[in-house]
Design a protein that fits this description.
The complex is a heterodimer. By secondary structure, chain A is mainly beta. In chain A, about 5% of the residues lie in helices and about 45% in strands. Helix content of chain B is about 0%, strand content about 30%. Classes of the chains: A mainly beta, B mainly beta. Chains A and B meet through strand 4, strand 6, strand 9, strand 10 and strand 11 of A and strand 3, strand 4 and strand 5 of B. Strand 9 of chain A pairs parallel with strand 3 of chain B, so a sheet runs across the interface.
């Protein structure tokens, strides 16, 4: 991991709100080397601060925006958007954010945000409980981009794939450098899900560095997915992946012929039919601290595809697998 | 600062539904707005490819272009009180 972050943090002040909740103020530079976005993610979902160090460590808190600039926009399809920019407006060399609490695991953030720590602002997507739902004939339920401390449990998924999204069906936990910023996935749980005639549960990273996603100079080569538990999963039925050029995260090549997914980012020729499989619980890309336990295989087609679990050991570190 | 919870339970979302969003809260959290601490999506039924919604990151429960489901987008507690 690059060590350019030691000056990102200039100090803290503790500030009390009306109900005496402690707020930690962080002063941050506007620096493209840091995965900070002052805008885009300060909208409906709120904003979340994350700090990642090492291969497993991470801290996060909700940003309490004090002073914003609103920008309205849209696209050619007539869709409108509204974003707000943190701080005192464009052009400033630094700005600050207030966090809703002291960063957990570290009572003095100045020590934690030293060199070697990647920090970022992203959408406030956390503490979601997606529990006991039934999903059928759809494509995918995914934690996409920033996702922290969420639980996806006791859901029933049926036929969650089609020829457009082959390889994308089922449940996915993404973490990546996305839309210009650092959006890791940390400490999410998939417990007791049944995924039939779908592609299973996938823990994936969309890239291995921010540089590869257009953030030049921001070369965080760290696991974007960390601390994920996938437990008590039931797979069954048959999945017939049909590769499609619209899908950039595919089963492809030699690995697919063995029933294994490749690392993300690969592309394949369209309309390649693969042998039916039972689906997988799999982890690929820059991920760390993955626990996969107790994958049950139901009525699966015979053959090498019915393996149930696949972990790309070349990219996944600190993985524990107990099929 | 205030906090709140949001729950969506026992709903049916289909491909013909006009949308799957509970609201497009354009609220930045600040000291005068609540922070959504818990979002519970439980015991719902999602059938078929859900309709594409507008700019994804500004929506609540939103779908991607292929009809998938981004779990975890939340809205302002001003718009949905539980």
């Amino acid at each position: 991991m690059a060590g350019a972050y030691k000056d990102a943090y200039r100090g803290t002040t503790l500030k009390s709100t009306s109900n005496s909740t402690s707020v930690t103020r962080l002063y941050l530079p506007v620096d493209p080397r840091i995965g900070l976005l002052r805008s885009d993610w300060t909208t409906a979902v709120g904003t979340q601060f994350v700090a990642m160090n090492g291969s497993l460590g991470g801290m996060e808190a909700v940003v309490v925006a004090q002073g914003t600039t609103t920008r309205k926009g849209g696209d050619s399809a007539g869709r409108t958007s509204e974003t707000r920019e943190l701080g005192s407006g464009s052009g400033s060399s630094s700005f600050y954010v207030d966090l809703d609490r002291l960063l957990p695991e570290c009572p003095h953030p100045a020590e934690a945000l030293g060199g070697g720590t990647a920090i970022g602002l992203g959408p406030n997507r956390r503490t979601l409980q997606f529990v006991g739902n039934t999903i059928t004939r759809g494509t995918v339920v995914q934690l996409y981009g920033m996702a922290v401390r969420n639980s996806v449990s006791q859901n029933d998924g049926h036929h969650m794939s089609d020829d457009f999204h082959a390889g994308h069906g089922g449940f996915i936990d993404w973490g990546e450098c996305y839309d210009g910023g650092l959006q890791p996935s940390m400490y999410n749980e998939f417990e007791g899900n049944s995924v039939l005639n779908s592609n299973g549960i996938r823990v994936a990273t969309g890239g291995t560095s921010c540089s590869s996603r257009g953030r030049k100079g921001f070369d965080v080569d760290a696991p974007f997915v960390r601390g994920v538990v996938v437990r008590n999963t039931t797979l069954g039925g048959a999945v017939v992946p049909v590769l499609n050029r619209a899908n950039k995260n595919l089963l492809a090549g030699d690995a697919a012929s063995r029933g294994h997914p490749t690392r993300s980012g690969n592309r394949a020729e369209p309309s390649i039919m693969l042998p039916p499989t039972c689906g997988w619980v799999n982890a690929t890309g820059a991920t760390s601290g993955i626990v996969i336990e107790h994958v049950s295989l139901g009525d699966c087609p015979s053959g090498p595809g019915a393996t149930g679990v696949y972990v790309d050991r070349s990219e996944v570190t600190n993985a524990v697998v107990r099929p | 600062m205030d906090t709140c919870r949001l729950a969506v339970e026992e709903c049916v979302f289909t491909s013909t539904a006009p949308n799957v969003s509970l609201g497009n809260g354009a609220a930045t959290y600040n000291a005068s707005r609540p922070i959504l601490r818990k979002l519970f999506i439980g015991r719902n039924t999602f059938i078929g490819e859900l309709p594409t919604r507008s700019v994804a990151r500004h929506e609540t429960f939103t779908t991607d272009a292929g009809g998938g489901f981004f779990a975890g987008f939340v809205t302002s507690c001003e718009q949905v009180q539980v």
